[in-house]
Write a structure and sequence with these properties.
Blueprint lengths: L9 H11 L2 H6 L3 H5 L5 E11 L4 H5 L7 E12 L2 E11 L2 E8 L2 H13 L7 E7 L4 E7 L16 E4 L13 E2 H12 L16
Organism: Streptomyces yangpuensis
Protein name: Secreted protein
Amino acid sequence: MPLHVPPAPAPALRSVLAALGSPTAVHEAHTPALRAIQGPLTAELPLPVHVLDRLTLSDLASAGRPPRTRLVGWRFLIRSGDRHVAAADTRLTPDGWAFSHFFEGPYVAATERALRQAELLATGYQPRLLSVPELYMLTLWLHGAVGADAAAGLPAGEDLLVPLAPAPPGIAAYRPHPVSELLPVLTHRLTPATAPVPPSLAAPAA
């Protein structure tokens, strides 16, 4: 089923197109593939980038408290011909949405692959990106409310999270996980282990 890709804010798209049209911006980018291309470049597949705020096990246990997320930017895949060669991020400034930077690397191809897989699912979704910075993890967040404001909303239990490669050890890349199943795993990894009590501070034996 086709994905319901949300429209990006017009200023965000304009800022990326302006950067693509700027030889200086492209030349200064740390993207050799982008600098080497001579033909036209297009920005497509805008995805809102949300960050998962750190949770603790007590948060998870408190009456089904939903995870907290916040929008930090919009990401566009940059196409040259029949392939995506880079991505462009935008950020929100006091003056509105503005171009942030170009980049390339494994997450570009991983995002494209995950989107193609998601299009084969029987249910329609609104695609987003959800980042877990503490785990160096990025997921494709498939939100069930296809008509929702892409800048708002929390992951619902039936939403899907698809870890992108490279994924953290023990978490399979490209495998769709319901939020209700993956979130406890992430929460456990984000919760610092309790340090053992030194023997000198332990309660004396009876």
